[in-house]
Amino acid sequence: MPLFTAPDGTPLAYHERGAGEPLVVLPGGPMRAGAYLGDLGGLDAHRRLILLDLRGTGESAVPADPATYRCDRLVDDVEALRVHLGLDRVDLLAHSAGGSLAMLYAARFPGRVGRLALITAVPWALGMPATAGHRLAAARLREEEPWFPEAFPAFEAWLEGTGDFDPVFLPFFYGRWDDTARAHAAGDEEQTNEEAADRYGSAGAYDPPATRAALARLTAPVLVLAGELDGGPAPSLARRAAGVFPAAGVAVQPGAGHYPWLDDPEWFTGRVTDFLSGRR
């Protein structure tokens, strides 16, 4: 397990999978250890995945100052990783909440980004949150599923603030609620630093007008990939986010939820590999 040191002295870890050109991968959650990403549906057959454990998660150390869990403060950790790897420019893939970290990195260090793949990333950094309406509309697409009658009321109550998070509605985050999805979902709680997650998007983390202005000058190619059945982000929100970037393309993976590499690994790895190689 390789280690490097953040600018504030916090030891940080990353995990390598596969061989070839490096691809730095930023996890979501927010603040979930990178283990849940696995091999990204076999993407490690095409690129050497550098799976970062953000500070306070996985094998990375807990920082002395919890305020450094804030998303904008984590940008320095990503830059330290680039320097540690000896890369002039870095290709980035970011999932879910990690997408906002990747956007802030690209805004601050545009010349250091080779290609940027945003995978089912809610664009909080752009001031474009996924709404309850987005999520409920996506959930209603699943009304023929046998688990829907029990899951939907609990999901609706949670989104409206009248109910607690309930594992019964986890199927809405997956395109297929099968054994693979169940096993994946079971690891969420033990992999997430809840204190860090609460601080990730806290006051001051985002300055959407400044970030949008900076990203409007980004020349690096960007892929914004959404799942057809995902509500956070819904494909419509992903398209809005893509409009911020001068050189962005949108891909909507059929039948996919929030973890598209689990729902159809072949489709996912094919589309992402095409993008990273410059074919699409």
What do you see in this structure?
The chain has helices at residues 71-85, 98-108, 132-140, 148-160, 179-186, 188-191, 194-200, 208-215, 235-242, 260-263, 265-277, and strands at residues 3-5, 11-17, 22-26, 48-53, 90-95, 113-119, 222-227, 248-253. The chain is an alpha/beta fold and 280 residues long. It has one domain (3-131, 189-277): Rossmann fold, CATH 3.40.50. An eight-stranded mixed sheet has the order 1-2-4-3-5-6-7-8, sandwiched between helices. Helix 2 (98-108) crosses helix 8 and helix 3 packs antiparallel against helix 4. The longest helix has 15 residues, at 71-85. The chain is globular, with a radius of gyration of 18 Å. The relative contact order is 0.16.
Structure at a glance:
This protein is an alpha/beta fold.
Number of strands: 8
CA distance, first residue to last residue:
33 Å
The strand order across the widest sheet is 1-2-4-3-5-6-7-8
The CATH architecture term is 3-Layer(aba) Sandwich
Order of helices and strands: EEEEHEHEHHHHHHEHEHH
What Rg do the Cα atoms give?
Answer: 18 Å
Overall residue-averaged pLDDT value:
97
User: By CATH's scheme, which homologous superfamily applies?
Assistant: Alpha/Beta hydrolase fold, catalytic domain
Question: Which CATH C-level class is it?
Answer: Alpha Beta
Content of β-strand: 15-25%
Report the structural category: alpha/beta
Instruction: Please estimate the helix content.
Output: 25-40%
Q: What count of helical segments does DSSP give?
A: 11
Overall 3D shape: globular
List the uncertain runs.
none
CATH topology type:
Rossmann fold
Count of the domains: 1
Can you summarize the main beta sheet?
8 strands, mixed
